[in-house]
Amino acid sequence: MGLFEQLQERHVEDNPVRVGVIGAGKFGTMFLAQVQRIPGVHVVGVADLRVDVAKSNMVYAAWPAEQMEASSLDAAHQSGETHVGQDAMALINHPGVDIIIECTGNPVIAVDHALAAFDAGTHVISATVEADAVCGAALVARAAEAGVIYSLAYGDQPAMTVELVDWARTCGFEVAAAGRGHKWKPEFRFSTPDTIWDYWGITVEQAERGRLNPKMFNSFLDGTKPAIESAAISNATGLNAPTNGLAFPPGSIDDIPNLMRPREEGGVLEEAGMVEVISSIAPDGSMIPYDIRKGVWVAVKATTEYQKNCFEEYMVSTDDSGLYFCNYKRYHLIGLELGLTVGSVGIRNEATGTSKEFRSDVVAVAKKDMKAGEMLDGEGGYCVAGQLRPSRISVPGRALPLGLTGDIKLVRDVAVDTVLTYDDVVIDETLSAVKLRRECEALV
To answer: pLDDT tens digits for 187-245?
Structure first.
């Protein structure tokens, strides 16, 4: 029986999967826009520090005002309505909540929320993939100890890529590489919230209409989010990160089989079994037709003559050797697709992707020359961008994780394009995120 049918049954039985949403920004609002049409799911509560903004976003996403006026979480649980408030911990600890959906975008806070949920015996779906990049393996271990699930969020590209890798391996294919698309030029790594919309390709008016956060969207553009999501894919699938970071080779979807081969076979990979990001911009700056900018892909290799012959017989688009083939989803719809994870976790007790190890890391790289005493402003800001590295390199080098760069002070000068280290900043070792990060570093 499919997930939708099982959710319909839960609706008929008046036994919905009960969820709490923390963070009503873009991702949270996109899910809230869809959940009204998903049977068998009840949003008990939404927690956001800006209750007025959360309610405004929900109205914008077509929520009836009366549906979100429950006076308390208890009232919401009993009535089927939704309580909107500031208290995330009250939502986490409410016995009527089965799953917490964490979409604050702040990795330090997200770790606190996840640990509290585990203590409460509640599953966690994390749309804050930044937390996964900092200490995902440790979070998964803590969830397992508590007997609950910690899952990546379907709709985000990591979970969708993990699904494609699982498809390939379950079908008996050898995975050559997997990843996502992006619009990339090397100079984008210096982008700031002031330059994002010109680079991104929409107007300020469109951004304001969509209530888009320029700092968050800048993290997509400057390479940080591709690095974070590639780390999540690597740590969930066992695929390796490139030694010197993502190469962002340009190409169309049909170019992926030729690109995603080891260098000795004519591709760009340093070895088979890698994560990578395909750029939608040609070297001359033009947009590449039939691009994968908004999608995900997996490249597989035929390991027998019979497989190769089948590719040919069924007219599969391959590389020039006939051995490599790419399967893909050209678009991802972010929070609009989260229902798949809610159903998977709530009905099947299965995650849609989870970090199994700490194989890949995201390090902080300076966007500009900085002086001791300056405050770093985290992901998507004016100071640092994230770049992907193998953990076997980043950890011995004491590289500073991108996810720990929010509002911390530099203690010495740092030059542009330099990988920051723990020695460059003051770290609060009492933070749960830092403690779990240390657990991950001990695994390397």
So the answer is: 999 999 999 998 888 898 998 888 888 998 999 999 999 999 999 999 999 999 999 99
Residue 376 to residue 409: CA distance in whole angstroms: 6
Instruction: Give 183's contacts (C-beta < 8 A, 6+ positions apart).
Output: 199, 200, 201, 221, 279, 280, 281, 293
Compute the distance between CA of residue 289 and CA of residue 409 in angstroms, rounded to an integer.
44
Shared-domain flag, residues 339 and 384: no
Paired strand residues for 156: 154
Q: At 308, which helix (H) or strand (E)?
A: helix 305-313
Cα dihedral across residues 226, 227, 228, 231: positive or negative: positive
From residue 24, alpha-carbon distances to 63, 102, 150 in Å are: 13, 10, 20
Question: Quick one: pLDDT at residue 208?
Answer: 87
Do the Cβ atoms of 47 and 86 come closer than 8 Å? yes
**Residue positions counted in the chain:** 444
Structural domain including 403 reads: 360-441
Query: SS3 string of 33-56?
Result: HHHCCCCCEEEEEEECCCHHHHHH
- 8 SS3 class: helix
Q: Say which CATH number the domain at 398 has.
A: 3.90.1210.10
Position 202 scores a pLDDT of 86
Global pTM reads 0.96
